[in-house]
Design a protein that fits this description.
The protein is built from seven helices and no strands. It has 168 residues and is mostly helical. The radius of gyration is 21 Å and the shape is globular.
Length: 168
């Protein structure tokens, strides 16, 4: 018979603690995704098949963009809330997530989304290609003494004035 040593007990305890932590994280993640999907359902009117298809695509997108699924769903809901259908909102959400990942001095997904929304509303040509906005923000921040977050914030404050004045 083998005697149980102190190391065997500590390894078992560590494994149990880690299993509990992982289980808690999984439950929290499921709750976050469920909550995000509830928000998306509130602002869109799709079939169950469309939501299933969206969730499947959002899962793949979250892996590609190195973010969590609830963030993809929440970002999509943000754009759907202002009137975009689920397909267009998904494209816009992807651009916002990329912007929040690559842009400097962007504090949250909300900041990234709001910057894109303001820019698209002010400069109509970018609605078809939201990544062009992200590219331009990054290009300017790489070549001048301003961060892409700073550009986004400045445009949030001044975009409607630019549009009214006829600037492109």
């Amino acid at each position: 018979k083998r005697m149980v040593g102190k190391n065997d007990i500590s390894k078992t305890s560590f494994a149990n603690i880690q299993a509990k932590r992982i289980t808690k994280e999984m439950v929290a993640n499921v709750k976050e995704v469920d909550s995000a999907m509830i928000e998306l359902r509130k602002v869109t009117d799709e079939s169950e098949n469309a939501y299933d298809k969206f969730l499947s695509g959002a899962s793949e997108k979250s892996k590609q963009l190195h973010t969590n699924l609830s963030e993809v769903v929440n970002a999509t809901a943000d754009f759907a809330r202002i009137g975009y259908d689920i397909d267009k909102a998904s494209v816009l959400a992807e651009a916002a997530i990329i912007y929040s990942n690559v842009g400097d001095e962007i504090d949250s997904m909300d900041d990234a989304s709001n910057s894109l929304i303001s820019s698209m509303k002010a400069f109509k040509g970018f609605e078809a290609d939201p990544m062009a906005i992200v590219d331009k923000f990054n290009e300017v921040s790489n070549n001048f003494a301003i961060s892409s977050g700073g550009i986004g914030e400045a445009l949030q404050r001044s975009a409607s004035s630019f549009a009214t004045a006829g600037n492109t």
